[in-house]
Amino acid sequence: MYLVYANEKGHVYDHPGLLAVARNGDILTEILEEELIPLPEGATLVSLPDTVPIGMDPDTGEMVKLDGCTAVGALVPQGITRLLLPGYVKSKKESKLPLFGYSAVVWKDGSFWVAGRASDDIYKWDPLNFPMDELRQRVEKTLELFPQNRILQHLSHCALEYECLTASNNFFHRWEGSLPVSYTCNAGCYGCISEQPEDSGFPSPQTRMNFKPTEDELVEVMLHHLQTPESIISFGQGCEGEPSTMASIIVPAMRRVREQTDMGFININTNAGLTDHIKGIVDAGLDLMRVSIISAIDEHYNAYYRPRNYTLENVARSAEYASSKGVYTSINYLCFPGVFDREEEMEAMINFIRRTGIKLIQLRNLNIDPESYLSMIPKAQGEVFGMKQAIEIYQEELPDVIIGSFTHVPPEELRRRKSME
């Protein structure tokens, strides 16, 4: 398997004499055959600005910098968990990579391969199922039906400009649809994709919603989407802050909707720090809850999320309460090779999952500049297993917990609802 690199014009090549290497955190490592999958459909190759690729001399085992070129990474589609980072060093230490999740890519057997793992069925998240011409027509018709609804106007921008698939589902009238509700947040996440300080060095790839919706607007969007047993409407999107800060309108809106229909599922994607607010939302009829988390170690969690007036203990209590009330709970686990697979991280997270009754781990690639992230979190204290082995350990330690990438409808509840049709 050979090194892939880009020239100054961005043209991608494979190196005929250097083997590919990758990074697990900040450690250069060889790539194992079992860590590779063919470049998935929908993946994108990108050059990494201000980097120098590193390969390995097959005769001496020496690591070699390829000066005058840039490293190449793959941006893999949702549902694919990256196992290794590209092998590179920064040519400008102060330079920061844009907020994407870069996976190691190699040239092997006449084609590109990436260090990755298929963690879920990507059918519902395949861009081919979201044809743009049809989407434009559906957006136009939906906005004609609800000309005063600012949420749908906002989502039309997300769907057409950012090509957000969850937002697009609102207009295709299927699967998991978005319901952004909050322009404020009780955390200052280091890698937030919708709001960054001007001096952060990270341009935000999305624009956060800038208005407070009304209860009527929420009800309108929910009733429009919740019309099939499999439909999901989700508070908490990349284009907003923390949805539970708006519990004062979410709770009465949910109650009004459930007075009119029991169709579909109501979900919240949340940091779960506002335990009292989460309890109110759960009691109003919540079906699914996905808790965003990066670590179950306080020092690490606080360094990334920078929580405002809440702690990791609040997060655990919120998840415990939701599980105790029959809510199907999951974690949105932000994964980074060389950190996710640390011994102490795994031990803490497994204990967190057991305590809180989490049913599903959604593995999500952390979109971040690697050097910036690694410099702000604690150093590894124990063994680093590698992503592939770490996931296998989770499967062994938590046999009743599903490991995937997406929000799942509980199969037993879906069967029950379908039987009532």
From TrEMBL:
Keywords: 4Fe-4S, Iron, Iron-sulfur, Metal-binding, S-adenosyl-L-methionine. It holds the Pfam family Radical_SAM. PANTHER family: PYRUVATE FORMATE-LYASE 1-ACTIVATING ENZYME, PYRUVATE FORMATE-LYASE-ACTIVATING ENZYME. Gene3D superfamilies: Aldolase class I. One of its GO terms (molecular function) is 4 iron, 4 sulfur cluster binding. It comes from Brevibacillus panacihumi W25. Residues 180-346 form the Radical SAM core domain. This is Radical SAM protein. Its cofactor is [4Fe-4S] cluster.
